[in-house]
Design a protein that fits this description.
six-stranded mixed beta sheet; four-stranded antiparallel beta sheet
Length: 325
């Protein structure tokens, strides 16, 4: 279980004046600016949950994760990982967590990947039987055997991310922190990594905390969302709950052959909005306030439809609207 209560983290940023004279002044009299990266965040994550921790750049996501991992010490507040303080009991906590930072690696750059796994086996004191069982499981999920004897520096980005995910799970942690695990990856590799994360959660009841700017990762993996902005929690609850807050929004995307740039459409008393873009028409409305069949039936009569697709509101849409507000 993860317990976070009124967590605060303040950084001191030195203020430097311009020019050589300003640089010399800071050597003898340095002024600081206080930056509050996290401002009283509280939440609780139970065993086996898959939670999306999302927010804009600078919202405080990575700082919060680093405090939960024990890398940073909070300015005030409390964080407990399975009942332990991650900063004071860092070695014990490290035995029970796995961490993947999308922009950094925990693997040794110049040695074959298999040697990195063997080093991590000794660091985490994984028994020979558990190591063999875990490697078979990871090979099946992530196809590590395809490149396991290559030096890490020769791996592609997708291969390295699969290797980092495997390394973070080698000691079977009860909690897995994933910070941008699919950044820069192609669609196929993303899909494979998502499947692997789901399987780990299903097989071992692993708690997963995911931060990412790819909302498709969040929608596919996480039932619960914690949205952070400017160091505070804006929302904490199920995906469906936040979607419902913004209504059951539907969008009809219609492509047509005839030119209808100057045509006026029925807005159904302001409940339907339209957008024309070339040979495309977008009709957006709340399906809880107006029947879908009524909008579709009207448009079929008014426009010669060449093709049509229907889109429901996504988490990305919701988050954009939330941050605008």
């Amino acid at each position: 279980m993860i317990y976070v209560n009124n967590l605060v983290k303040t950084f001191k940023k030195p203020i430097r004046e311009e020019g050589v004279l300003g640089m010399l002044k800071t050597l003898f009299s340095r002024k600081y600016e206080k930056i509050e990266a996290v401002k009283g965040i509280s939440f609780q994550i139970n065993d086996g949950e898959m939670v999306g921790l999302i927010g804009s750049n600078g919202a405080g996501k990575s700082t919060t994760i680093k405090m939960m991992c024990g890398i940073l010490n909070p300015t005030s507040g409390e964080v407990k990982i399975n009942g332990l303080n991650p900063h004071d009991d860092r070695m014990k906590v490290a035995q029970n967590i796995g961490v993947v930072f999308g922009q950094k690696t925990q693997l040794w750059w110049d040695i074959p990947l298999i040697e990195s796994f063997k080093i991590l086996k000794e660091i985490y004191q994984v028994s020979d039987d558990d190591y063999k069982k875990r490697m078979n499981f990871l090979n099946e999920l992530l196809s590590l055997n395809d490149f396991i004897h290559q030096p890490v520096r020769t791996l592609s980005l997708g291969q390295r991310m699969r290797a980092d995910l495997g390394a973070s799970f080698l000691h079977n942690p009860s909690i897995l922190f994933l910070d941008e695990p699919t950044i820069g990856l192609d669609v196929l590799v993303k899909e494979n990594i998502r499947k692997a994360i789901k399987e780990m959660n299903k097989e071992y009841n692993t708690t997963v905390i995911l931060t990412t700017h790819d909302m498709s990762d969040i929608e596919d993996l996480c039932n619960r969302l914690i949205i952070i902005d400017k160091g505070t929690v804006l929302f904490d609850g199920p995906q469906d709950e936040i979607k419902n807050k913004f209504g059951n929004t539907k969008s009809l995307h219609i492509t047509y052959k005839d030119k209808i740039d100057n045509k006026e459409f029925d807005t159904f008393d302001g409940r339907v909005t339209y957008k024309l873009d070339g040979h495309s028409l977008y009709a957006t409305f709340n399906a809880d306030l107006i029947e879908f069949d009524n909008v579709l039936g009207y448009l079929v009569k008014e426009v010669h439809i060449d093709d049509m697709s229907i889109h429901s509101i996504t988490i990305e849409d919701v988050v954009k609207d939330l941050f605008k507000e």
